[in-house]
Amino acid sequence: MLDISFGSFPALNDGAPQAVALICHGKGTSEDATFKALDEATAGALGRAVAFKGFKGDAGQTLVLTAPAASLSQVVLVGCAAKDGSAATAVAVENAGGTAARTLDGVENAVLALTSDVAGFAAEAASGARLVRYDFDLYRTKKSSDHASLKALTVATSDVPAAESRWVALDAVSRGVFLTRDLISEPANILYPETFTARIEALREIGLEVEVLDQAAMQELGFGALLGVAQGSANAPRTVIVRHNGGGEDAPLAFIGKGVTFDSGGISIKPAAGMDEMKTDMGGAATVIGLMSALARRKALVNVIGVVGLVENMVSGRAQRPGDIVTSYSGQTIEVLNTDAEGRLVLADVLAYTKDRFKPKLMVDLATLTGAIVVSLGTENAGLFSNDDALASGLFEAGKQVGEGLWRMPMGEAYNRQIDSDIADMKNIGGRPGSAILAAEFLKRFVGDATWAHLDIAGTTWKTTASPTAPKGATGFGVRLLNQFVQSHEVRA
Ligand code: BES
Ligand code: MN
Ligand code: ZN
């Protein structure tokens, strides 16, 4: 994990050559004191390069000078200005920090500075750098050693105490994001319900309360929908409840995650191509756990409960069949017409149980629930479904503030009728049209009158391309968004 510290801008003429990245907001860059110091140290080469390349400081723009002076191994400029010339945002600077840390090459230590017009975002720049320097290398026995990689970054700021105090929370959140990415990246032979549970239990160390419901406990409670999914697997299911108590006697906020550690589709088996990606089908649960760890580490002043349903959806002689009818925890019966629509079956029991037992102020579930949401929104926005406008807009705004997009999808009675069954209370699939909405309507039948939202993160959890703050692979999408959302519910002392 990239080591972050804050300090003043270093002198450029003594000791070993330094690598420096400077985040610029465009207007005024040439007048900026740090820019001038770098220009001077490079005998004007930096200014000439800026003019030659037409570097304006626009978001996404970079300029790299390699060894422009004896005292400088690298100078990297990264822009963060919006096209319309508006003031810099935390998200833009965070992205620039990520781009800077990715661009700095072949050095173990570097300095990251900001021009004075964006200097207030030093901690955000550090966060972007931390987030992008993630590598899941547990299973590579030969690490590439011919190339130094960035280990420590000093973020130069004139107000070190302010940056350090802001960093406390961002550091906690970045560790939560890394936990989420680690869990998602693990293959399904390593991470299955039992081992996932062990990873969650390890979080007692940072102060979280952890309670485990094993198969017998769930049988006792009548989790027929979840257990039907689990019955084809040799790996027994778990439901795990995690609590962070930071808000006195208040009713908790509840976050519920789909934790299908592998989704083969079951008897309604998936095609071979791309099935490996279904190790990520526990992305909702991983996000909830990463969030809970972030809240515990930053000692959030609020009561929060995370509940994850962990199962493996497999094919075997004991697997659930298409046409089977199961009785859910809520008492409602479900005709399972497609065993690959399993996430909603898992969530049905976990949602209804969470509402009954904890009477939360609100419930938000996260799930890699449908391929249809990927078709609708691609990988840039997750689907947002809710029975409450205030909750929907609170989540939407939180996403905007951290650069994790949500897009609200419609719901309604006419959709809900499409999952009525001829012989049970409902069926687990409707037609193909609008099937991300039908999945949400299914969940809605298990939340009663609770204030509830559902985030379909099937498109945003795993990406085949890098972003400014994440390498390709598991993104950790949702941890920062929900952390921001929770922050707006904290009681301020
Ligand atoms: N886990 C999948 C959804 C998914 C698809 C997640 C692509 C990530 C990437 C889910 O369990 C599933 O199989 N959904 C089916 C539902 C269908 C059978 C109604 C789907 O979307 O095709
Ligand atoms: Mn499935
Ligand atoms: Zn699934």
UniProtKB/TrEMBL annotation:
It is found in: Cytoplasm. The keyword Iron does not apply. Belongs to the peptidase M17 family. The gene is pepA. Mn(2+) 2 binds at residues 258, 263, 281, 342. This is Probable cytosol aminopeptidase. CDD domains: Peptidase_M17. Presumably involved in the processing and regular turnover of intracellular proteins. Catalyzes the removal of unsubstituted N-terminal amino acids from various peptides. It comes from Gluconobacter thailandicus NBRC 3257. Its cofactor is Mn(2+). Coiled coil: none annotated. Binds 2 manganese ions per subunit. It catalyses: Release of an N-terminal amino acid, Xaa-|-Yaa-, in which Xaa is preferably Leu, but may be other amino acids including Pro although not Arg or Lys, and Yaa may be Pro. Amino acid amides and methyl esters are also readily hydrolyzed, but rates on arylamides are exceedingly low; Release of an N-terminal amino acid, preferentially leucine, but not glutamic or aspartic acids. GO terms for molecular function: aminopeptidase activity. SUPFAM superfamilies: Macro domain-like, Zn-dependent exopeptidases.
